[in-house]
């Protein structure tokens, strides 16, 4: 799973944002966000259904407590 896909799932599924809000936070269009989240959901379903390991790739991730921060949050804080 790419870091973008992970971030999309975190925003939509964990934080409960609507796609338009999540797309804005990721600085992508709503249709692009939709493609990213659809791909993430397919990959997560494959992991769960087939007992595969989940690997998140694509850049540095800072873990703080129970929250993960990636480039989208870092760019929002500046």
Polypeptide structure, described:
The longest helix is centred in the middle third of the chain and has 21 residues, at 30-50. 18% of the residues are buried. This protein has 4 helices and 2 strands, in the order αααββα. The termini are far apart. The chain has one domain (3-77). It has helices at residues 3-14, 19-26, 30-50, 71-77; strands spanning 62-64, 67-69. Helix 1 (3-14) crosses helix 3 (30-50) and helix 2 (19-26) packs across helix 3. It has a two-stranded antiparallel ribbon. The protein has 78 residues and is mainly alpha-helical.
Offer a quick outline of the entry:
With 78 residues, the chain is mainly alpha-helical. 62% of the residues lie in helices and 8% in strands.
């Amino acid at each position: 799973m790419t870091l973008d896909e992970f971030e999309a799932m975190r925003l939509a599924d964990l934080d409960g944002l609507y796609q338009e809000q999540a797309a804005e936070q990721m600085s992508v269009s709503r249709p692009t966000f939709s493609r990213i989240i659809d791909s993430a959901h397919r990959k997560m379903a494959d992991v769960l259904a087939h007992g595969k390991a989940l690997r998140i790739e694509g850049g540095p991730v800072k873990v703080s407590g129970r929250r993960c921060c990636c480039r989208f949050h870092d760019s929002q804080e500046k």
